[in-house]
User: Which sequence fits this backbone?
């Protein structure tokens, strides 16, 4: 059994709608009342959630966004490239991994409501990472990008968008 199969089996990882494999590892029991959150949230939320996330070479996490900040952390494997589109049309590429001499970092925060996608770097066979979200993740806050909508908003990044949408 290879490392990818071992991780999928060990942590009972499930296919993720945006690509890759995941399992929720933490969901806070504490609740934030809707009137204590900004109006971008449609109701109460848990304080925090966390997942394990696995991507193998040839797979990707499609462009999506949520209403909360997401703190990503590297655990094992090789470098994950993360692509974040900002409101001004800029593109931030971050390498999440352990090769700090090549510019990798161990943690990276994707700001709330920013479109982002990720995939293993060219020389990576797999990336095993985690994501902590606060306020906690809720599918009501999740939006998978439509390729044509991203083209219209970010025409300068059409090639990247084409390769990272489902």
Assistant:
């Amino acid at each position: 059994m290879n490392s990818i199969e071992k991780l999928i089996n060990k942590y009972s990882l499930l296919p993720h709608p945006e690509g890759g494999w995941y399992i929720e590892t933490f969901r806070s029991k504490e609740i934030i009342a809707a009137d204590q959150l900004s109006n971008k949230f449609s109701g109460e939320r848990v304080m925090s959630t966390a997942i394990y996330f696995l991507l193998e070479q040839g797979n990707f996490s499609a462009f999506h966004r949520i209403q909360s900040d997401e703190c990503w952390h590297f655990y094992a494997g090789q470098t994950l490239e993360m692509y974040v589109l900002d409101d001004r049309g800029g593109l931030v590429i971050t390498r999440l991994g352990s090769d700090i001499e090549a510019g990798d970092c161990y943690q990276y925060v994707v700001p709330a409501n920013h479109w982002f996608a990720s995939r293993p770097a060219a020389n990576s066979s797999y990336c095993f990472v985690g994501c902590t979200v606060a306020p906690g993740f809720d599918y009501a806050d999740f939006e998978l990008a439509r390729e044509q909508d991203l083209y219209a908003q970010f025409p300068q990044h059409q090639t990247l968008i084409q390769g990272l949408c489902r």
Q: What stands out?
A: The helical segments are 3-10, 147-153, 158-163.
